[in-house]
């Protein structure tokens, strides 16, 4: 019996060793095979295949469940029908294991290792913040580093000009922007926000509290959380005239008591617009008001709202004008200083009970409406899509999941029963289809701020674009009218013409209480950072008669549907041309 037991024990030991050997051999063979495949892929890539080449995505794949719609710029399926969806899905799944995918994945892993290595080094070598900045910034950047200061978003000291770049912000970039506007100081916060002004913040902070690395410049510090890294901007060369963007707002009836209405004043013989705007800019006020030889600085308020302009002739300051007339009207100019009474924004502290959509057809002004809503309510807006360009410009809700309910409303261009019924209510923004189509075509070929070229307009893509997108403009509105639970209809043209009344409607619909001064601040910053720039073609008519006939039929259909739901019909300017 003992002999048999010994033999069994011997066999089991041999089997255990054999299993261990086979497992080790299997793992080694797998590792060698993976290394060989990777080497082969890299060799194939070096022969001409781009490692970062994007996989082709069909127009309708988002509808088939293959691609997350948040990643698509155009969530609406194109005019082409999808044929053989099952076959296409198999082909796409195969591409996930293709050589191009492996190379892309290997590249991502290498970048992650680099980031880990840089973090490890920075942890092992604690940065002496004060000495580092005093030395490095003096050598590499224009201007002089002043120090780290506390920053209060509700009462910001550096408020002459504000801009964001959450991907490429550098110290030099901020300093140059402030220098162009002739400001004395440039401050950076959160690694990506730039502020300009003529007065230093009142409260200094510990040097080590400015510990955020610049998004576009490794090794440089750009402030921190509620902390500003402040620089004194390099003085312009002798004879160089500082540039300032002063905008004429118009002639307005003066308030009864100018001294009580405005916070600063100057009396100067032979006063010029430049002298008054420079004085108010240095005092950090967004408005420069001129009456005779008197200059006043301040904000739009209930007593001086800038809503009703007067004839410019009434503001003439000629000696022949009667003194009685001169005392009743004043000229108003916008200085480069930003009105910061409405620039502070945050996420909702508790999840919203009502899920609200800000719905529109692309090109209907959704981004502009988001700018107005955010500044009026003080809360970020979300998005069904992730647009890196908008996130980089300060729309921080872009990176928040659209279903988080931490934003006041969610941008969407979606239509269809399922996509609409997930929202409890919606603001439906409608714009003239002629204008919307041109705006979206400009965005597709020149981004949010540019204009498409003549070559784009004259190509065959423009007629195809109109044929497919014009029907989408109509179906988008009709679907929201049919499936929307609670709607507020806002026409883009009405919002532009009567900003404050329409914005009040939107804010009340969102169940937010807003002060009059905050709304006036929004009106003063109405354009935001997304007004198109560049040469705009005058008297440009890209629509053929055939296109107009098609669009006009959709206009009449939508107008009838709006009236059928007891909404106001489309504005007259939409009507057939």
Helices and strands in order:
Layout: H1 2-46, H2 85-95, H3 99-124, H4 129-140, E1 144-150, E2 161-164, H5 171-180, E3 185-189, E4 193-197, E5 213-214, E6 217-221, E7 227-232, E8 247-253, H6 258-261, E9 264-267, H7 273-282, E10 287-291, E11 294-298, E12 309-310, H8 323-326, E13 329-334, E14 356-360, H9 366-377, E15 382-383, H10 388-392, E16 410-412, H11 417-421, E17 425-430, H12 433-446, H13 454-458, H14 461-483, E18 487-491, H15 492-497, H16 499-509, H17 516-524, H18 545-564
Structure, explained:
The chain is of the alpha+beta class and 577 residues long. Among the domains are: 144-232; 247-334, no CATH class; 356-531 and 543-564, P-loop containing nucleotide triphosphate hydrolases (Rossmann fold). 40% of the residues lie in helices and 15% in strands. It is built from 18 helices and 18 strands. It has helices at residues 2-46, 85-95, 99-124, 129-140, 171-180, 258-261, 273-282, 323-326, 366-377, 388-392, 417-421, 433-446, 454-458, 461-483, 492-497, 499-509, 516-524, 545-564, and strands at 144-150, 161-164, 185-189, 193-197, 213-214, 217-221, 227-232, 247-253, 264-267, 287-291, 294-298, 309-310, 329-334, 356-360, 382-383, 410-412, 425-430, 487-491. The strands form four sheets. A six-stranded antiparallel sheet has the order 9-11-10-13-8-12. Helix 14 (461-483) packs parallel to helix 18 (545-564). The radius of gyration is 31 Å and the shape is globular. It starts with a helix and ends in a 13-residue tail after the last helix. Residues 36-139 have low confidence and may be disordered.
């Amino acid at each position: 019996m003992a002999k048999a037991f010994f033999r069994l024990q011997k066999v089991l030991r041999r089997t255990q060793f054999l299993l261990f050997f086979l497992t080790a051999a299997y793992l080694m063979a797998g590792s060698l095979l993976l290394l060989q495949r990777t080497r082969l892929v890299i060799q194939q890539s070096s022969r001409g295949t781009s490692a970062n080449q994007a996989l082709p995505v069909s127009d309708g794949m988002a509808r088939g469940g293959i691609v997350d719609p948040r990643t698509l710029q155009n969530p609406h399926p194109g005019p082409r029908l999808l044929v053989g969806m099952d076959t296409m899905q198999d082909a796409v799944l195969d591409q996930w294991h293709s050589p191009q995918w492996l190379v892309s994945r290997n590249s991502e892993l290498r970048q992650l290792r680099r980031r880990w290595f840089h973090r490890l080094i920075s942890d092992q070598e604690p940065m002496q913040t004060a000495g580092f900045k005093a030395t490095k910034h003096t050598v590499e950047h224009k201007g002089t580093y002043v120090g780290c200061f506390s920053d209060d978003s509700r009462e910001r000291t550096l408020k002459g000009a504000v801009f964001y770049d959450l991907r490429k912000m550098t110290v030099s970039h901020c300093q140059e922007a402030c220098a162009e506007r002739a400001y004395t100081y440039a401050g950076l916060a959160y690694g990506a926000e730039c502020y300009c002004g003529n007065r230093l913040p009142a409260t200094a902070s510990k040097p080590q509290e400015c510990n955020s690395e610049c998004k576009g410049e490794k090794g440089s510090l750009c402030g921190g959380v509620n902390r500003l890294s402040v620089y004194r901007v390099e003085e312009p060369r002798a004879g160089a005239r500082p540039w300032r963007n002063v905008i004429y707002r118009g002639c307005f009836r003066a308030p009864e008591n100018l001294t009580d209405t405005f916070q600063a004043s100057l009396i100067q013989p032979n006063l010029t617009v430049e002298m008054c705007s420079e004085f108010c800019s240095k005092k950090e006020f967004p408005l420069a008001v001129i009456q005779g030889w008197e200059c006043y600085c301040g904000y739009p308020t209930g007593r001086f709202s800038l809503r009703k302009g007067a004839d410019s002739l009434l503001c003439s300051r000629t000696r022949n004008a009667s003194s009685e007339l001169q005392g009743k009207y004043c000229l108003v100019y916008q200085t480069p200083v930003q009105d910061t009474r409405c620039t502070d924004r945050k996420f909702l502290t508790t999840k919203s009970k009502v899920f609200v959509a800000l719905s529109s057809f692309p090109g209907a002004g959704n981004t502009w409406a988001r700018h107005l809503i955010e500044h009026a309510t003080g809360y970020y807006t979300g998005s069904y899509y992730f647009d890196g360009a908008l996130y980089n410009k300060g729309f921080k809700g872009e990176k928040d999941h659209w279903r988080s309910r931490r934003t006041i409303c969610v941008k969407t261009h979606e239509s269809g029963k399922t996509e609409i019924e997930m929202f409890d209510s919606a603001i439906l923004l409608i714009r003239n289809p002629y204008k919307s189509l041109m705006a979206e075509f400009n965005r597709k070929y020149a981004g949010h701020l540019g204009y498409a070229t003549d070559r784009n307009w004259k190509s065959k893509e423009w007629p195809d674009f109109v044929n497919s997108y014009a029907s989408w403009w109509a179906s988008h509105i009709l679907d929201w009218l049919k499936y929307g639970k609670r709607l507020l209809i806002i026409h883009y043209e009405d919002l532009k013409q009567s900003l404050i009344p329409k914005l009040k409607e939107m804010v009340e619909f969102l169940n937010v209480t807003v002060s009059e001064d905050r709304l006036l601040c929004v009106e003063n910053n109405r354009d935001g950072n997304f007004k198109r720039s560049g040469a705009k073609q005058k008297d440009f008519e890209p629509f053929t008669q055939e296109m107009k006939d098609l669009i006009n039929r959709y206009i009449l259909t939508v107008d009838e549907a709006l009236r059928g739901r007891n909404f106001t019909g489309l504005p007259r300017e939409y009507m057939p041309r």
